[in-house]
Amino acid sequence: MDTPGSAPAEASGLVGWFRRLTGRAAASGAEVVGRLPVRDWVQVNTQPTKVMGFDQPLMWVAISLMMLGLVMVYSASIALPESPKYANYQPTHFFMRHLLSIGLALTAGAVVSQIPMAVWERWAPWLFVVALLLLMLVLVPHVGKGVNGARRWLPLGVMNFQPSELAKLAITLYAADYMVRKMDVKEHFFRAVAPMAVAVGVVGLLLLAEPDMGAFMVIAAIAMAILFLGGVNGRMFFLITAVLVGAFVLMVSLSPWRRERIFAYLDPWEEKNALGKAYQLTHSLIAFGRGEIFGEGLGSSLEKLHYLPEAHTDFLLAVIGEELGFIGVAVVICMFFWMVVRLFHIGRQAIALDRVFAGLVAQGVGVWMGGQAFINMGVNLGVLPTKGLTLPLMSYGGSAILLNCIALAICLRVDIENRQLMRGGRA
User: Fold this and answer.
1) Where are the bilayer-spanning segments (predicted)?
2) For residue 17, is it within any domain?
3) Mean predicted lDDT score pLDDT of the chain
4) Residue 186 has what pLDDT?
5) Nearest-CA neighbor of 65 among 412, 404, 410?
6) Counts of helices then strands in the chain (DSSP H, E)
7) Would the pTM of this model clear 0.90, i.e. be above it?
8) Nearest residue to 179 (alpha-carbon basis) of 192, 195, 197
9) In a domain? residue 238
10) Number of domains comprising the chain
11) Does any domain span residue 46?
């Protein structure tokens, strides 16, 4: 029989103390004591928990989308060198550049996943300032690169960097940090919402000067969603929504070419529209119609043979629909839907652990991925007017793939820290 001063009695007291401190069950503590001396048990359980894994399904879904995108970019771009515009390109030009972009993006994601969320929270305002400066720099003559009448890129040799992609990540981090700082005054419109509205307005003016209305729509959606998820009063949220809708209507009504695009979208098969502003839309719909249920087969698209412009970028889903059919499109939609749901779950989990910044960032990235994918798919299917937005993780575009991977790596970091906290460690 144990004496009062024996090791088991001492362990029992320690188990009770640790149970109150960490919430662990006394039974599990007793099992550990049964296998280890009390001194070793105390030493093991007072050490911070190491990384206990991360959301591997989320990572593999993202990688699967990138790999499918790589195959479809190759299929959509292999015939481009037959066009005079790309006569000096090799058939594998876009495939190799896209493969390089994916390699850089995965490397950057692996590095970013090691950065604690506290660092991102501390540097969020400065990253937003950097994004603003780059958006200004791209408008400088002979610095920003123009393509098809739009000045959106900074040539960096390895890739043409698009500052609007960095702006999406910057606004996600900045809005989350902003809501954490304004949590006490979130019921007051001018103190909580007005400064954020000014920040989004400045970004919007710079993007519309490029012009890049599609990126502005995504950034506005991210900012609004984070304000709403952060607890901004519902009446103020609907007021902001009404103001933004009014602003978009005003922009369309004051821009003749945007107005023509809307009218063409409403009646794409009218002869003038089908040969003009609705040319991409009509050939995208033809591609989906040819694909039917099971598709024409990988590599068998006809629309990519110089009928459908930008088939490897904005209209990649149309090529997927033609070659892989309804089944292929449905798989892509389901993968994006699962990803968004998972990102929101990670965000809710972080907020439940009193990590509001991390939670809002994860949910903001979910809005980013889901919103941009929805707009791109809607454009391809004729549900929305034509906009120059790529399909996240899949379409050709180095800076888009890079920032998509960095954003998802930050979300994986949120999940890693959630798991550390739930196992009694420190984030």
Assistant:
1) 58-79, 99-117, 123-144, 189-207, 213-230, 237-257, 324-344, 356-375, 395-416
2) no
3) 84
4) 66
5) 404
6) 16, 3
7) no
8) 192
9) yes
10) 1
11) no
